[in-house]
Amino acid sequence: MLAELKHTLGRMRGQMIGWSVGLALYGLVMISFYDSIAGMENFQQFIEAYPEQMQAFFKSMTELNTPKGYLGTYYFSYMTLIIGILAISAGAGLLVSDEEKGILDLVLAHPVSRTALFCGRLLGLVVALVVILTVSWLSWLIPSGSTGLKLTWIEFLRPFLPLFAVLLLFGTLALLLSMLLPSGRIAGMISGALLVADFLLLGLANSNQDLKSIVKFTPLYYYQGGDAVTGLNWGWLGGLLAVSVLFALLAWLLFRRRDIRVGGERSWRLPSLRAALRRS
Amino acid sequence: MSDQVAIKTRGLAKAYGHVQALRGVDLEVKRAEIFGFLGPNGAGKTTTIRCLLDLIRPQGGTIRVLGLDPQVDPVAVRARTGYLPGELSLEANSKVEAALRYLNDLRGNKADWAYVRQLAYDLELDLTMPIKNLSKGNKQKVGVVQALMSRPELLLLDEPTSGLDPLMQQAVYRLLKEAKAAGATIFFSSHIISEVGAIADRVAIIRAGVIVEEAEPARLADITMRRVRIRFKQPVDPGPLADVRGVLLLSHINGLSATLQAEGEIDGLIKALAGFPVSDLEVDHPSLEEVFLAYYEAGQKEVK
Hints:
The structure holds two protein chains of two kinds. Chain A is mainly alpha-helical.
């Protein structure tokens, strides 16, 4: 398992560095704007002049001149989408990408169990996400002392935990779908579409009561975003992590049973469908 | 299972959807022998090898590799087995040495690196090259090195000389013979009869998922055909050549050239040609598929 963990981290090294540097720069730039925005006179009236639907969609923007609202609007509201791209692409390709390239055939011919391979790679994804989020957290925390964004290290840390949980959930969802669908490409595409759909649904549900009953069944409803600055909802966080674990377990069960391909994508088993149509 | 048996399968069956790849394969490979597994493309060679390593799961039959059931204890089987896939894929961005070190990591760093360097030297493989810059033949050398580097008890090699030039093919044969001398069992697939004849102690022939023949390589000569192309200095009637036992006249052009099919020994044909004004002679081994066709047409044995 250790060899696979090392190998996965080695392969994700470029992504880890790129995403960490990008998010760190973003954090440094955004925190430097906080004092100017928080100090703007009549800012609240300016925000209230926005259409109600828009205010509802970006819920936290009405508190943009507070640390919670600022962090929520400029970071935690859409980092689920931004870093979600990485989590989904890494999750969808965690095992299937090597299988489609034909590499897994050789790797699994070595004395490594499927469970060890699965756990090593999944742990690699978790570590990569933790490293990226830690660097991002530090990029807000370290310069915060010289700005008006006065939060303790733990207050800065709290919203990163639900963000990690959501990223892990969509990463493991992509992993699970990659075990069920013919290719990692399709698994990534569907997971990404679900993430974007959930993001839009959540925003629209803020102004539409009918959608509220639906959005309760989606993961982002249980994502606190910037609100977690003032306190964590441990039940929601635990729920998101529990679903991630469930997705990972199901993916592991499927991976243990599957025939490893020599390469290429799996088929949709259309021949049986065609045969059924012919029979009818 | 006897200690003297390295691989034993009984009634091995595997289907991919509605395609029946293996239809009851029975094999027995003794320890410390080189066993050739011959068959045309799609006959079931790769599927059999992948079942032995639990990379794919058969729907029926039993398998024992080194006395172990690969489905029950796959890690123990693989720990004692070196494998060369038929279509070798490696991390394109790695260098050869990094790729080998990763695979060695998976084996718990069992390989002796001096031996790896020796193998690379024998095969003229540059360990510092990025995989993406390697030719097919050089990639194949990486595959051979990784399969041999931990000195496994059993080698499962799927077309080990694919893409290698004749010199390198000879180098691989030499390495396999050395591995055998050190006590390793070698099970390799091929569709080249001459290759199997050169190094194998015993041979099994698979066709359409069934073993149709199991024999020593010398026995293969009996079922081997050759295609003979002859050019004559002046127009002749090649008809008498077709009267030689085992020879069939396939075509001729104005009596200046002829193509014949010769089955078994060609001594009679050579003697018959002594009476002809021959300017050039080419002898080809036909593909295994052609051998099979002749084999079945002759009714020597039926596919079950």
